[in-house]
Amino acid sequence: xxxxxxxxxxxxxxxxxxxxxxxxxxxxxxxxxxxxxxxxxxxxxxxxxxxxxxxxxxxxxxxxxxxxxxxxxxxxxxxxxxxxxxxxxxxxxxxxxxxxxxxxxxxxxxxxxxxxxxxxxxxxxxxxxxxxxxxxxxxxxxxxxxxxxxxxxxxxxxxxxxxxxxxxxxxxxxxxxxxxxxxxxxxxxxxxxxxxxxxxxxxxxxxxxxxxxxxxxxxxxxxxxxxxxxxxxxxxxxxxxxxxxxxxxxxxxxxxxxxxxxxxxxxxxxxxxxxxxxxxxxxxxxxxxxxxxxxxxxx
Amino acid sequence: xxxxxxxxxxxxxxxxxxxxxxxxxxxxxxxxxxxxxxxxxxxxxxxxxxxxxxxxxxxxxxxxxxxxxxxxxxxxxxxxxxxxxxxxxxxxxxxxxxxxxxxxxxxxxxxxxxxxxxxxxxxxxxxxxxxxxxxxxxxxxxxxxxxxxxxxxxxxxxxxxxxxxxxxxxxxxxxxxxxxxxxxxxxxxxxxxxxxxxxxxxxx
Lengths: 299, 204
Ligand code: SF4
Ligand code: SF4
Prior knowledge:
Chain A is α/β, with parallel strands linked by helices. Chain A has 13 helices and nine strands. In chain A, the strands form three sheets. Chain A has a four-stranded parallel β-sheet with strand order 2-1-3-4, with helices on both faces. A three-stranded parallel β-sheet of chain A has the order 6-7-8. In chain A, helix 3 (about 50-70) packs across helix 4 (about 80-95). The radius of gyration of chain A is 19 Å and the shape is globular. The model of chain A has no long low-confidence stretch (mean pLDDT about 95). Chain B folds into two domains: about 10-105, no CATH class; about 115-200, no CATH class. In chain B, about 65% of the residues lie in helices and about 0% in strands. The site of one iron/sulfur cluster has 14 residues of chain B, from helix 6 and helix 7.
């Protein structure tokens, strides 16, 4: 199965580990990700705040590239890139005039039929096919994750179909259950971490993350699981600071879903670069061999 | 700007609120002040006197000055919680974005200049190179921010900003999360050309 892949700027820089993990995990699952050629920045939240035209034109160019290369589906792990691309596609399909204006400037034209998918949609489709359990090599002991979705995966400032429940998404839980984990239910799944406010309005962002952290701790969770590189960076890089400011003594690793999946598929901590987290994240990982392999295959 | 109920002019108010509604694409006249937006807004903290419902109220009352000088315009983190919960489907973030543009057009200084610098630096980097270069755009942002603080003689803030930044950069370096290559996409040419074309055709 070939799927177009849009990493976006963050996955090529501060969250390069997520790019690497996504490629490794998908290749182990025999899903061929093909990074689209010469993709450009989607404009992210900044474009949508200050330049409506660019916030559609920038992701539109990437859609055109993927469609011209013959792909029918594109997977976008970063939630901001995903949301902006999905909204651009829908807006262009609803506004033929804008579509032809934008197409007039691009060598690779937007048709508008590309399926824009989150990383969870692709993983869930794979799980649905029943091919995952044979590939699992390890199981976890003692890991109690809360799934943190943030804003951009389910909420949009434009009427587009959400890929999961807006207030109580379940995609990550479904994936984690398949690898034998039991995610803890909690209240802050889709509460904002402040995104770029961690840089330009730290007071707001740190207060938000402290609330998120307190609920996770109160529920007895011992780690977060995320799919968005912005959420990961914020909760991980600033955790020590916002916890100290708010008298929180616990520290919780912030795992990408690809890390927990990769480990269960038999990859190592170093292969997945989990040692590049800010909060110490490896001592909590207690993996056992999955002994009952034969029974699984017969299931 | 109406300072009391007797000076309130429905016609003037409607003109402003319709303008904001048109640019933002939000039916703000339908707001009945139920405050469901505010109940879930993460930017509304314990201190501060601003909220999504108040911002919409100011716009609907035609209070231009109070609206464009409102903290909500800059504090909104575009989480879209308000809009997905609003019974009338009103996205306050789109209104905040519209007011940001009006601030720019009117030439007044943004209430939170650093937030304005952040988003312009990010987008400019993305358009300049076709991809955002984190170190470059953060450098440009911090320069703009610090220059502005120097002009205002806010030396304590400059000191805090530099300390905060160096701590972050140090952590990023230590964990090997800093990227040293430079990202580009040839798309920047197409995007710039298209943007210019859009600007000229919208002027006539
Ligand atoms: S939720 Fe909607 S209708 Fe209610 S106050 Fe907010 S904007 Fe107005
Ligand atoms: S989008 Fe802005 S105004 Fe609406 S809830 Fe989020 S921060 Fe508040």
